[in-house]
Amino acid sequence: MAKIKIAQNPTFTAEVKIPRVGAEPVPVEFTFRYFDRTELARLYDGWNQAAEAHAEKAKAEGMSLEQFTAGQIQLQADQIKAVTVGWSFDDEFNEAAILDLVTTCIGAPQAVLSAYQEAYSPGRLGN
């Protein structure tokens, strides 16, 4: 019988189909951080609180769409930084490149985070 550890690996890889304007999505391999259920819940709680705070601030300050978008871009870049440790883009994996990815492609953050969440789904794990 094969031996297997209960503990998960600290990182895992998954393919992310990065949307390209006027072209087909491009498959890019991302290396993600593993979080246990409690850590993942804490992470998602933080994201929800940050999004709510940004929306409240935007309303209170009467932010322009450009200002609101700049805040959203930063929130999304922070989310990607929280769950990724690398990628197979030609560009070096660093904070500036993550910000460029989020800024240049409106669908990229959702694609990355959806692939991350899908890796945790019970169906993918084989029930």
From TrEMBL:
<dbReference type="InterPro" id="IPR014859">
    <property type="entry name" value="Phage_TAC_4"/>
</dbReference>
<protein>
    <submittedName>
        <fullName>Phage tail assembly chaperone</fullName>
    </submittedName>
</protein>
<dbReference type="Pfam" id="PF08748">
    <property type="entry name" value="Phage_TAC_4"/>
</dbReference>
